[in-house]
Amino acid sequence: MTDPVTPVTFPPAFLWGAATSAYQIEGAVREDGRTPSIWDTFSHTPGKTLGGEHGDIAVDHYHRYREDVALMAELGLTAYRFSVSWSRVQPTGRGPAVQVGLDFYRRLVDELLAKGIKPAVTLYHWDLPQELEDAGGWPERDTAYRFAEYAQIVGEALGDRVENWITLNEPWCSAFLGYASGVHAPGRTDPAASLRAAHHLNLAHGLGTTALRSVMPARNSVAISLNSSVVRPLSESPADLAAVRRIDDLANGVFHGPILKGAYPATLLAATSGLTDWSYVLDGDLRAIHQPLDALGLNYYTPTLVSAAQEQPKGPRTDGHGASDHSPWPAADDVAFHQTPGDRTEMGWTIDPSGLHELIMRYTKEAPGLPLYITENGAAYDDKPDADGRVHDPERIAYLHGHLSAVRRAIADGADVRGYYLWSLLDNFEWAYGYGKRFGAVYVDYATLTRTPKSSAHWYGEAARTGTLPSPSPETT
Ligand code: FCB
């Protein structure tokens, strides 16, 4: 690890950002023509989210975006990654756009640009218009075509002022938490459908990239954000190493294979042959998916530890993404998941910055020359205001210091990492966990929606303003 005494200084052009997503912060779910997405339906279905919580109001960013942008500017952040709600701009998931929906994002972008904050737009952060799910969702090929049309609409509306674009956020979660374990919307538990969904998400990325480029200035950058797992073996035994290979294919190769190399891993096709024959991969699909990218986004929270197993331990599986009796890993019943050693965040996720370094170095090798962004990294803690109303979160500062140091070390080792987006700007709706997990650098009082920057926000702001990580020790924060 980097010696804490050495100042950890970043290249001058490095972007210091924060990230959010539409359904987690916007609220205003029934305003200005927006229709339900799969997350509206799912969160309003009894038993799907903690305490039945939903994003109807969330943190009301739709009405408070000016305040939120001003906060980022005061802190000194230089970049902001947000997502567009598909059902706000194209309510039925097809056909003409709703201008008032697009106008919201145009105002947000203009506000950011006026404050010198570089916007990065994610087109899809899990909130499929419900009508498209009713028509079959991601397991259906048509959803990829619909995504390309939507990408073109948003690209036309914002491409003149937004340079950094991300097609999909974490397609692994969309495919396997949405359609295999069912802990995310739409909550289906059909392993074969989840593999079809993965392919159509890949196709959506490829067609969406082409659609964006057909309407945007050539200077704009198109990327995808993957939550590539850092998969480690419990032992070096051949069986445990084979387990790593299987999970690596299902977590990573299923996306980066076609996207970066134009092919699904042969080992993935073989391992899943009992579930699917992949006949929905049509001629030309791999060419459509394998578009040259301008950058790659990596989201990292914690590594994954696996071994071979004769059978799964009894009881609901968690694998770190929410409890379900169904596995998010198709064709991997002979793989067991283990808790990695070390301190954990409120999500139960082990804190291990070495995994972030490993991930960056992996893609530096697998995609030489491709600029990388850390499009999400952060930690949930049970933050509470003190008697003076201040929120001290030294654990989050330590987490950020450790992970940003790992990024810096990767840059020193030759990686081309151009920026870092902290997850998240604000406490928000954490999917199946409702409002129970606070990831924000800014505390939100859910009764009043008041925003209070935590000490980590001030710490991170200083890093952004100076390009050097302040000491992580509590007395300086
Ligand atoms: C990522 C998601 C993001 C948030 C963080 C904690 O998987 O992209 O929306 O839930 O995890």
UniProtKB/TrEMBL annotation:
Residues that, per the record, bind substrate: Q24, H125, N169, Y301, W423, E430, W431
Record's keyword terms, sorted: Carbohydrate metabolism, Cellulose degradation, Glycosidase, Hydrolase, Polysaccharide degradation
One Pfam family of this chain: Glyco_hydro_1
GO biological process, any: cellulose catabolic process
Record's GO cellular component terms: cytosol
EC number(s) given by UniProt: 3.2.1.21
Substrates-to-products reaction catalysed: Hydrolysis of terminal, non-reducing beta-D-glucosyl residues with release of beta-D-glucose
Coiled coil region boundaries: none
Active site residues per record: E170, E376
Record Gene3D superfamilies: Glycosidases (3.20.20.80)
Tagged with keyword Hydrolase: yes
Molecular-function GO term, any one: beta-glucosidase activity
InterPro entries (alphabetical): GH, GH_1_N_CS, Glyco_hydro_1, Glyco_hydro_1_AS, Glyco_hydro_1_beta-glucosidase
The protein's enzyme class: hydrolase
Family note: Belongs to the glycosyl hydrolase 1 family.
Protein's name in the database: Beta-glucosidase
Organism encoding this protein: Streptomyces griseoruber
